[in-house]
Amino acid sequence: MKFITSSRQMQCEALRLKRSGKKIAFVPTMGALHAGHLSLINLARKRADVVILSIYVNPAQFGPREDFKRYPRPFAQDYDLAKTAGATYLFAPKNLYAADASTTVQEKQVAVSRCGELRLGHFDGVATVVTILFNVVQPDIAVFGQKDAQQCDVIERIVRDLHLPVKILRGPILRDAKGLALSSRNQYLSGEEYENALSLPQALKEAAKSLSPQRAEKTARHLLSKNPQLCVQYVEAVGGRLCAAVMVGKTRLIDNVPLKR
Ligand code: AMP
Predict the structure, then answer these.
(1) What pLDDT sits at residue 260?
(2) Rounded to an integer, what distance in angstroms lies between the CA atom of residue 154 and that of residue 145?
(3) Which of 148, 183, 187, 241 has most ligand 1 atoms within 8 Å of its beta carbon, as the pocket-test mutant?
(4) Model pTM?
(5) Which atom from ligand 1 is nearest to the alpha carbon of 181?
């Protein structure tokens, strides 16, 4: 695995790979890698000659009162996991923005509801960094997790609207043995919070059996309200999936499941 921190070097390398006819698959992450990330690398390996994994904790997608500073950064462990998973390149830039950067990318339809409404500016940060990363990495394919369903929708819209020459692939949600969707933020949870967090996938799974999307939303809200340790931010049926965000203590968790009917 080659390790690169310079954007210029990464871009030169990517252009060289493309000139030599190699197909590049890209997996962007913020690190603190878990089996969900590794499953995306696996998917990428099946679809391309070269897999570029990026690790960048993007300051632009965190709000002022969010967890940018305390976001886990276990770099040595991530390096080993990326290598074992079969990434060809690990791209871990220190910074991706010019000191006086004055350009952003904003998607104005898909990004405004749900997580976009609750985390103002979040998707602008995501849209901008993903566009920068696509320009640096020059991927033919980029793999994102269905766990962040709205993020996938926003990115697909940007790719369509800006005619970006990249195919977006969605990887399925990886869960732990008790059903909680894997997330780098799960390590914030205390033992008790973890047990409470399990109510989220349980409620969504049960509610997804409902006869209509409206019923599914109502059932999920009802089931979640039974656990007073959860603070529900939203429950919404969108695009054939039942999506929700909750706070467990200070930790924000999101999840989604397919609606059954
Ligand atoms: P993050 O490092 O949290 O920004 O996530 C990087 C990528 O991994 C995103 O495309 C996420 O959607 C994806 N991802 C995060 N958690 C999971 C999971 N449990 N299963 C599959 N993909 C995931």
Answers:
(1) 87
(2) 13
(3) 148
(4) 0.97
(5) 19
Residues with CB under 6 A from ligand 1: 29-30, 36-37, 39-40, 144-145, 147-148, 171, 173-174, 181-184
Residue identifier of the C-alpha nearest atom 17 of ligand 1: 36
**Terminal Cα-to-Cα distance of the chain (whole angstroms):** 44
Nearest to 115 by CA among 243, 216, 23, 229: 243
Q: Is 128 helix (H, G, I), strand (E, B) or coil?
A: helix
CA distances from 143 to 37, 95, 175, 190, 196 (A): 10, 22, 18, 31, 30
Q: What residues of the chain score a pLDDT lower than 70?
A: 261
Give nearest CA residue, ligand 1 atom 11.
Answer: 145
Q: What is the DSSP pairing of strand 251-258 with strand 230-238? A: unpaired
Read off φ and ψ for residue 174, nearest 5 degrees.
-90, 135
pLDDT tens digits, residue range 161-206? Answer: 999 999 999 999 999 999 999 999 999 999 999 999 999 999 999 9
Question: Which one from 34, 37, 122, 222 is the annotated catalytic residue?
Answer: 37
Instruction: Say if residues 182 and 237 touch (Cβ distance below 8 Å).
Output: no
**32 Cα–ligand 1 center, Å:** 10
Could you give the 3-state DSSP secondary structure of residue 24?
A: strand
37 is an active site residue = yes
C-alpha 183 – ligand 1 centre gap (Å): 7
Question: Each residue of 66-97: pLDDT tens digit?
Answer: 999 999 999 999 999 999 999 999 999 999 99
Instruction: Determine contact, residues 243/151, Cβ cutoff 8 Å.
Output: no
